[in-house]
Design goal:
The chain is built from 4 helices and 18 strands. It is an alpha+beta fold and about 375 residues long. The longest helix has about 50 residues. The protein is rod-shaped and about 165 Å long.
C-alpha cells in the first residue's frame, strides 16, 4: 500500500513538473503548402484607354461612366471651326460642279442648243451644196457660186467640230475638278474624323476624365479621356516581390480574397507572367484567370496566395528544434532527445523528413 502510494505520488510530481516546463505537441501528417503572398486588382479582360490624336477644345461629350457603348460609337467631339468651314466650301463647290453636269443645267442645255443649231446650219449648207453641184454639172450656175457655198459649208463644219470639242473638253475638265474635290473632301473629312472620339471596342465606360470645354493637349495629356472595358470577362493582376520571381510559374494555383466578399475564397491560375520588373516598387506582375460569381468593379483590390508547392508530410513547430536538429520525444513517460532530418519551413512549422512518426509526442520547452 505504501509502495503504490509512493508510485502515484512520483507520477503526480513528474507530470506536475513536466506540465510546468514543457508543452506537448502530437506529431501529425499535415498538408504542407508553400505560398507566396501578393496583392493586386481586378480589371476588365479587354480594357483600353481612349486618347485623342489631335488637340482642341471639347464641344460635346456623349457618354458617361457606366454606359454601354458599341465599337465605333461616338464618345466626344473636339472643335475645329476652320476645318469645318473648309469642308463646307469644298462640298458647296463640288455640288455646284455636279449640278453643272446635270442634263437640266444651263451649262449643258446652252451648249447642246448651240451645237444643235450649228449642226442644223451645217446640214442645210450641205443640202444646198449638193443641189448646186447638180445645177453646175448641167451648166446652169457658175463655178464661183459653188466655191463660195463650199467655203461657207467648210467654215460652219469647222465651227461645229470646234464647238463639240469645246463642249467635250469642258465636261472633261469639270469631271477632273470633281474628282480632285472628292479626294480633297475625303481627306478633309478624314482629318475632321480625328476630332471625333470613338470607342475602339464594345464595352462599358469605366472612367471619364473630361468635361465639355476642356482643352485636350496631345503632347501633355497624361490621363486618358475615357477608359472602356468588357466586364463580361475579368482578369486579375497581382504584384509580387521580385525576390520570388524564380518561384512563380504559369499554371500555378492561386487563392484570392476580396474585402467586399469576405466570406469567399476564389481559386484561380496564373496564365501570364509579365517579364518586366517595376524598378520603383521592386515587383513584377502576373495575370490570373479566376471565375467570380459576383459582379465586381474594375479596379477592385484583392489579396492572394500563390501556391508554389503542395504535399502531405510531417511538420512540427520551429520551437521544438534545439541545438543541431534535435527534438525532445516523449517515450514511455520519459523525455528522450532525438536527431531528426529537417526539410523546408512553412511559416511557424518545419518539415521533418526523417526521425519522427505520425502520432508521436514532442516536448517543447516553454
Amino acid at each position: 500500500m505504501v509502495a503504490v502510494s509512493l508510485l502515484i505520488l512520483g507520477v503526480f510530481l513528474y507530470f506536475k513538473f513536466f506540465k510546468e516546463d514543457y508543452q506537448v505537441y502530437e506529431v501529425k501528417v499535415l498538408p504542407l503548402v508553400k505560398a507566396v503572398y501578393a496583392t493586386g486588382y481586378i480589371k476588365a479582360y479587354n480594357e483600353v484607354e481612349v486618347k485623342s490624336r489631335v488637340a482642341g477644345y471639347l464641344v460635346k461629350v456623349y457618354k458617361d461612366v457606366g454606359e454601354i457603348v458599341k465599337k465605333g460609337e461616338l464618345l466626344a467631339e473636339l472643335e475645329n471651326k476652320p476645318l469645318e468651314r473648309k469642308i463646307e466650301e469644298v462640298r458647296t463647290e463640288l455640288e455646284n460642279l455636279q449640278e453643272k453636269l446635270s442634263p437640266q443645267s444651263y451649262f449643258i442645255k446652252s451648249f447642246k442648243e448651240k451645237i444643235a443649231a450649228k449642226r442644223e446650219r451645217v446640214e442645210e449648207l450641205k443640202y444646198r451644196l449638193q443641189r448646186r453641184k447638180k445645177l453646175y454639172e448641167k451648166g446652169l450656175i457658175s463655178r464661183e457660186e459653188i466655191f463660195n457655198l463650199e467655203k461657207q459649208y467648210n467654215a460652219q463644219l469647222k465651227e461645229l467640230l470646234a464647238l463639240e470639242l469645246e463642249f467635250k473638253e469642258n465636261v472633261k475638265e469639270i469631271k477632273r475638278k470633281i474628282k480632285v474635290l472628292k479626294a480633297t473632301l475625303n481627306r478633309l473629312e478624314e482629318e475632321l474624323e480625328q476630332y471625333k472620339i470613338r470607342s475602339p471596342i464594345g464595352g462599358v465606360i469605366l472612367k471619364r476624365n473630361v468635361e465639355v470645354g476642356d482643352y485636350v493637349n496631345t503632347f501633355m495629356e497624361t490621363k486618358p479621356l475615357f477608359v472602356i472595358g468588357d466586364l463580361r470577362k475579368l482578369k486579375t493582376i497581382l504584384e509580387i516581390d521580385e525576390e520570388y520571381s524564380y518561384l512563380v510559374r504559369p499554371g500555378q494555383k492561386v487563392y484570392i480574397t476580396i474585402d467586399s466578399v469576405p466570406e469567399r475564397v476564389y481559386e484561380g491560375r496564373i496564365v501570364k507572367i509579365y517579364k518586366k520588373v517595376n524598378e520603383k516598387k521592386k515587383s513584377f506582375e502576373v495575370e490570373v484567370e479566376a471565375d467570380y460569381d459576383v459582379e465586381l468593379l474594375s479596379g477592385t483590390t484583392v489579396e492572394a496566395n500563390i501556391i508554389i508547392s503542395e504535399k502531405l508530410g510531417i511538420a512540427i513547430p520551429k520551437e521544438a528544434i534545439f541545438e543541431e536538429n534535435k527534438v525532445r520525444v516523449i517515450e514511455k513517460g520519459k523525455i528522450v532527445e532525438r536527431v531528426v532530418k529537417l526539410g523546408e519551413t512553412y511559416g511557424d512549422m518545419v518539415e521533418v523528413l526523417e526521425g519522427l512518426q505520425n502520432g508521436e509526442k514532442v516536448a517543447i520547452e516553454k
